[in-house]
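User: Structure please.
Assistant: Input sequence and predicted structure:
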Amino acid sequence: MNCFFKICSVALLFANVISAQEIPTTQNQSANLQLEKPSVNQTKKLGLLLPFNLNRVQNDTVNSVVNRLKKDKFLNMTLDFYSGALMAIDSAKQLGIKVDVSIFDSEETKSNSNVTKLIADHHLENYNAIIGPFYQTNVEKTAELLSANQVAVISPLSKEIGKSYPNLFQTITSPSLLRSAIFDFMRSKNGNVIAVVDKKKVSVKKYIQDTQKDVRLVNLTEMGALIPESLSSKLQKDRINYVVLETESTVLIKATLKLLLSKLKDCAIQLVILEPNETLETDEIEFSDLIKLKLLYPSMTRENNSLEATVFEKNYKLKNKVTPNTFATRGFDVTFDALKRLSQANSFLESASNQVTEQVESRFDYFKNDTGGYANKGLYILYYDTDMTVKEAK
């Protein structure tokens, strides 16, 4: 959402445009979930608790709103998420989903919010699902207050792991699930898994030694440099060799890549990272080398060039005059997923227990975790292909 449209959004928020919207119904179906009328003659309700924090900007002039938008990253993130959510509501309307959608200002910081007042004033205990708030402590408080009424509370952005409630759904796939998934994938391919781990990455090394015991660790010098023979001796000619590289050191990365590239003619090798690595994006690392080694990594989101994704991007750009960013797409995915689940006769909790869905960038595959809440194990194993595109590994 560009700056002009964000200013308009703030103005509309003050004009109380945020209110309950009913999405009328027609006979239609979605691609991932069958759309059904609820079994009772009562429209389901979805609430969005978004941290616009309008109380902070109510006395701002247009110029000061512009200045705030330049500096306030949290407000920008909220408005981007909101713009994606509005696209989801409009898309659901076109599909004929019948849900009442209400959007509220959660007025939140990391440690507090007005959710208690919102629940009391607007009877949110009668809603079927709530998206938000953004901060973990606030979304946990919302889940706690609404747990007796079995209102699904969906945490859209928080990466933190805190208290669990039987009605709390964490949409962000945890780093531990991403890590274990990439090792499971490599084993499924009968891979020879080797790891080059920086001496500074003590927790990563311990994780591998404790939970991935079949992975062979490469020895480094006392100064943390690669010992070439330790790596080359572990490569096998009759199996795919997955080399996990965990370091931010440019020197160690370049030494590892140089050795692996020299062995490609004799061995099948694929480079692997467990999480995003900014050093790989610098000019000192040749992108073509990562392509040659078909860099493999786990991700919560995917590259999507499908017709549906293209239509979303085109419509978003037409409406907002910019390409959707990560938070706008997240707003669409989380909201559209909730709307599609609520379109069914069963509850959100029942749908989440037995149906996996996929939206523009994200997969929603909920499971009940050990502490009683719901986590999302939706993820992708991606790799750099030789045509310079990112593809999903199968």
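The chain is about 40% helix and 15% strand.
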